[in-house]
Amino acid sequence: MVGLYAPDAILLGTTSPVISEGTEQIRTYFDELPGSGRSNRITERRTLVLGPDAVLGTGFYAFARAAEGNAPRPSRFSMLVVRREGRWMILHHHSSPHSATRR
What we know:
Largest sheet: 6 strands, mixed
Radius of gyration: 14 Å
Order of helices and strands: EEHEEEE
Oligomer: single chain
Helix content: under 10%
Number of domains: 1
Distance between the termini: 35 Å
Structural class: mainly beta
Strand order of the largest sheet: 2-1-6-5-4-3
Strand content: over 45%
Shape: globular
CATH class: Alpha Beta
């Protein structure tokens, strides 16, 4: 998972109280993922092409945790994906809980 991120990427994780910046901090954020029984399903998304080497994706997804009986946790995300040296990678990723109410 960490290999999808640029070495200087920034991650604002759904459940994290801190900004994870760079490979090691992003690795720490995802440390508990392997074997956790967590799953993620994108339910809606939009994509904006910013240029030949940058794409912005945004949308909604639902997390599920085996430890919580796999009840979906609606969340929203945005990701800036860039191409560097011919390789696409995530440079910025923000995720937060999705509000169930509309104003």
